[in-house]
Design goal:
Shape: globular
Number of domains: 1
Number of helices: 13
Helix content: over 70%
Largest sheet: 2 strands, antiparallel
Structural class: mainly alpha
Number of strands: 2
Radius of gyration: 19 Å
């Protein structure tokens, strides 16, 4: 039945139908989140009600996360933290698990297809993992309202990055720098669209390493993962081809998120009642989002997600300032 549904979407007029469906799901997401957080006090909703609300919300987030090219964590933390009545520490712990689960699901297939390279990922992931641990420790040590304010500002910065960032399928790299040569950050990957192997190399490696340390710290601090920043640094700054950068970004995210997650687990900031329905909903939604990727107009989805994240960032900032508690 699901295959028949997607075949119909791919027929004449299917693109308009798909965009209408996605718009409806996004509006439903806002309504569900606002209703669960504001209309119902905690005492009137049983534990399974919160689990169901999280599952439905994350299911919709997973649908829009894949076609828009953003990670689930960057949508999960500001939206769930802003509209659900959970302490932000628990939301951040679950957000790292959401980002980790999504990356782990995609990792094996990316490795088999040659779209994720260990030589490019490991030097960056080691440093990002260490800084993610530091970010998680700092995030758990400072007051939650301060984290909310910083999260809101960071999310608004991410919105600007998402709105202005460009992509280059095959960036021009005149010559590899000495550090990338020493770390063997070069090789080939198979481009199935062209049917041939593409040679790649990177440059500006010292600046890239510094940015990955900063990205890892931010990811651990807020529990948002780092897929939103890994891709532009690998592609636009260091010069990795866009397909290789996208696959390697997920591999780096897996290592960095797993290291920060242990800090939240050790501090008791990961609750199964929040994490389990969130991860399951996000994964199931991502499966549908991957299928919709073939029929949806990426620009429409991206604008919709930017609007969604912008509203969530404003909500987090005003909640931290006490203007919109």
């Amino acid at each position: 039945m699901l295959n028949m549904f997607f075949q119909r979407l791919q027929s004449a007029g299917g693109l308009l139908k798909a965009n209408s469906i996605l718009l409806f799901l996004s509006l439903t997401l806002f309504a569900a989140g606002a209703y669960a957080a504001d209309a119902l006090p905690v005492s009137t909703l049983p534990w399974w009600g919160w689990a169901l609300a999280l599952f439905v919300t994350c299911f919709f987030l997973g649908i829009v996360a894949v076609p828009s090219g953003v990670g689930g964590g960057v949508l999960f933390v500001p939206i769930v933290g802003g509209f659900f009545q959970f302490h932000l520490d628990f939301v951040r712990g679950a957000g790292l698990l959401v980002a980790l689960a999504s990356s782990l699901a995609a990792g094996p297939s990316l490795m088999r297809a040659g779209l994720a390279d260990l030589r490019l990922a490991l030097p960056l992931a080691v440093l990002a993992s260490a800084s993610a641990i530091a970010g998680a420790l700092v995030g758990l040590a400072i007051p939650s309202n301060v984290v909310q304010i910083a999260l809101g500002l960071t999310i608004l910065g991410i919105v600007i990055l998402m709105a202005t960032a460009k992509k280059s399928e095959f960036p021009v790299v005149p010559a590899a720098d000495k550090l990338s040569v020493a770390l063997s950050m070069h090789g080939y990957f198979r481009d199935t669209a062209q049917g041939k192997n593409i040679a790649w190399k990177v440059h500006r490696t010292p600046l890239g390493i510094f940015l990955f340390v900063l990205i890892g710290f931010i990811g651990g601090l807020f529990g948002v993962g780092a897929g939103w920043a890994n891709l532009p640094v690998l592609n636009l700054l260091m010069g990795a081809p866009i397909k290789l950068a996208a696959g390697t970004s997920g591999l780096i995210l897996t290592l960095a998120s797993s290291s920060a997650t242990w800090v939240y687990l050790n501090e008791g900031s990961v609750l199964a009642i929040i994490a389990v329905p969130s991860v399951i909903g996000m994964m199931l939604g991502a499966m549908i989002g991957a299928r919709l990727l073939h029929v949806l107009k990426a620009s429409v989805v991206r604008k919709m997600v930017i609007t969604l994240v912008l509203f969530a960032g404003i909500r987090a900032l005003l909640k931290g300032l006490g203007v919109w508690p």
